[in-house]
Every structure is written in C-alpha cells, then in structure tokens.
Write a structure and sequence with these properties.
The chain is an alpha+beta fold. It contains eight helices and five strands; from the N terminus they run ααααβαββαααββ. It has three domains: about 40 residues; about 70 residues; about 120 residues, Heat Shock Protein 90 (2-Layer Sandwich), CATH 3.30.565.10. Helix 1 runs antiparallel to helix 2, helix 3 packs across helix 4 and helix 4 runs parallel beside helix 5. The termini are far apart.
Length: about 270
Amino acid sequence: MQDSYKEVLIVLIFGSLVFFVLTAIIVYILLFHQKRRYQHQEQLMQVEKTYAEALLESKLEIQEQTFKNISQEIHDNIGQVLSFIKLNLNTLNLHGNETDDEKLQQSKNLLTQAIRDLRDIAKTLNTDFIKDTGILDAIEYQLVLLRKSGQYETEFLIEGIPYRLDVQKELVVFRVVQELLNNIVKHAEASWIRVEIRYQADNVIIQVRDNGKGFDLPDIESMQGLHNGLGLRNMLNRVALIHGLISINSIPGDGTRSLIELPKLE
C-alpha cells in the first residue's frame, strides 16, 4: 500500500515537472514569437519612416530644382524682355501733349518696378542664393521686401554667435520661414512682423511673430483650412525631415507666434 502511494506520488511529481517544463517551453515560444513580431513591426516602421523621409527629401529636391528653373526663366526671359521694353520707351522722342508724357513716364516707372519685383522673386526662388548668402541674409532679405511694400514694419533680431548649419537644413528652414511669412501676408492682416534667431550651444531657435488677427487652431483644423491653406502639415514634415520641431501658437485678436527648434548637430 505504501509502495503504491509512493509510485502515485512519484508519478504526480514527474507529471507536474513535465507539465511545468512544457508550459515553460510554450511560454518561451510564445514570448519568442511575440518578440520577433515586435521586432518585425519595428523594422517595418523604420523602413516606412526611412521611405517617407527619402520620399519627402526627393520631393524637396524636385521642388528646389523647379524653383531654380523658374528663377532662371524669370531672370533670362521675362526680365530681359521688360528691360528691352524699358529701353525702347527711354529712347522714344515723342512730342505729344502733357497727358501723353505723363502716361509714358508712368509706363517707365511701372516697368522699372516690374523688373525689380521679378528680380526679387527670382532671387528668393534661387537655391544658390540661399546657399551662398546663408539663412540670416536670406531671411533678412525677405523682411526687407516686406518692409519695402509699405504695409509692414519688420524687425530682425539675432542672439548669440551665429554659425552656419548644414546647407540642406538652412534651405529647409528658410522655406518654412518663407511659408510662415507668406501666411502672415495672406491671412494675418498684420502691421508688424518680427523674426528672432537665437544661437545656442546645442540648438538654434527661430521665432516668427506678428500682430495680426490670429486664429483658433482647433477651429481651423476642423475646417481643413490649416492643413490646406496654411500648410502646417507640410511645414511639420519639412522640419521633421531635418530632426527639428515646430510649434504654432495663436490667439484670436492677439497675433501668431511660430517657433522652430533645430539641433546644431544631428
């Protein structure tokens, strides 16, 4: 009887050990497959992220090349044609009445302004201009053009000791700042614009402010105006491509403040 009890006990202990071993093996297999699945998902996410960055970078390169081509066309063709027209007008020797003389002078002035405006547009579209002058001069030039329009007071502040960033970074940041300024012109109804750049040891912070009418961010998002009109998503993608951050804060009736933060090295 006692031997039978011992045999049953041994069988139970052995069975329990087998059960625990099998359970441990099954758990290990499940955890192993779970880990492999997570790793696979992470790899897929990394591939998708890399692909998205490569696609965005490719789009930016195509866009910059398009800007460059447009800039060259404006400079070489339209600008030369307008200059030729102005030359013809200057060489005319008309003996008309005072009204005709005024119209002729007005035409000359308008042509001069058109030539100047086209050259300004061509310069800001040209990638080489931004690469050669750097982001500080490029942004300041944009503010000078806005101030010359007579509609805005502009202010450009620089804190810290300036240093050049990677050319691609500066180009992307300039396009984002350019888009922010264009949004102010199109939507803000502002009278002054301030751009501030702070050079710190590890990063660069760029702030764009205006005293316009502002907006309610959630409302504009729900109306699709922010993504389609102000291009926030495009700016977010561009800044993310160079491992930066951008935030936009606005209060109705109290203007808008946009902040871009970039790591010095990445």
